Amino acid sequence: MKKIWIIHNSLHGNSEQISKTIAEGLKTDYNVSLNHIKNLTPEDISKDEPYGLIVATRILAFRSDFEMRGFIKNLDLVATLPIPKVAYFSTHALGWKNMFIKGMKKTLEKASCFEEVCPEYLEAKMEKPEGPAIEGSDAKIRDYIATLRNFLG
Predict the structure, then answer these.
(1) How does strand 52-60 pair with strand 122-125?
(2) What is the CA radius of gyration of the chain?
(3) What is the extent of the structural domain holding 38?
């Protein structure tokens, strides 16, 4: 089974909860590991030689999570083998603007350790920073899992 990592930097639990839902949706076809970036290092992921990586990023102060972007940059420095597939999603409680996610997209596209970045991403809006997700999010998450299955192959 292909190895997939899902990483998050959840503050209020929103990114973690969606990561768990995605992991559950993929676990029948992939060997999925999920963890908070504070509990692992880029070396942990690199030595596992995953086929795919799914990154959950929070939107804070109108920007993609700085800590997560730093984690990805460090992963790029230590990766010994390329990771064939990478995808990402975001959680936020803002009026959505596509520009808020561009920092994460740029970080992933610049990283030489990723062969292909999924062209689609999930944007999950929360009612407030502590959650819950707005109505209709469950269907968007299910659709994103289907997109991931297709992308990961």
Answers:
(1) unpaired
(2) 14
(3) 2-152
